[in-house]
Specification:
Number of strands: 3
Number of domains: 1
Oligomer: single chain
Shape: globular
Largest sheet: 3 strands, antiparallel
Structural class: mainly alpha
Number of helices: 8
CATH class: Mainly Alpha
Strand order of the largest sheet: 1-3-2
CATH topology: Arc Repressor Mutant, subunit A
CATH superfamily: Winged helix-like DNA-binding domain superfamily/Winged helix DNA-binding domain
Strand content: 5-15%
Radius of gyration: 14 Å
Order of helices and strands: HHEHHEEHHHH
Length: 117
């Protein structure tokens, strides 16, 4: 029960729901989420951390970067249908579509420079 409560608490924020929707497109690092959503790196990191801590995301380290992706196995075990609900909620949301389009673009030079720090 505690795990389920943690999952629902993590999903009670619009930014985190938007991040889930972005990660349904593909895995991404903090800098890509920051660039796509035009939010601060701190805000992106904090929200990714909350989703990861709740068990909704997997993390994969590649050099200095950590790439996050949806943990579909856990979602199917604990909240079957969550991905469909999120997809349906954001399909007609212009801002969410804009975020996904930005995620599809190559990272900007400033993002690449930040990653090298």
């Amino acid at each position: 029960m505690r795990d389920l409560l943690k999952i629902f608490k993590s999903l009670s924020d619009e930014t985190r729901l938007r991040i889930i929707y972005l990660l349904m497109e593909r895995e991404a690092c903090v800098l890509e989420i920051k660039q796509a959503m035009r939010i601060s790196q701190t805000r992106a990191s904090r929200n990714l951390g909350i989703l990861h801590d709740a068990g909704l995301l997997k993390a994969r380290r590649d050099g200095p970067l950590v790439f996050y992706s949806i943990d579909s196995k856990l979602i199917k075990q604990n909240c079957a249908g969550l991905e469909a609900i999120v997809k349906q909620a954001f399909e007609m949301d212009h801002t969410a579509q804009l975020h996904r389009e930005r995620l599809k673009r190559p990272a900007s030079r400033s993002t690449a420079q930040e990653a090298g720090r």
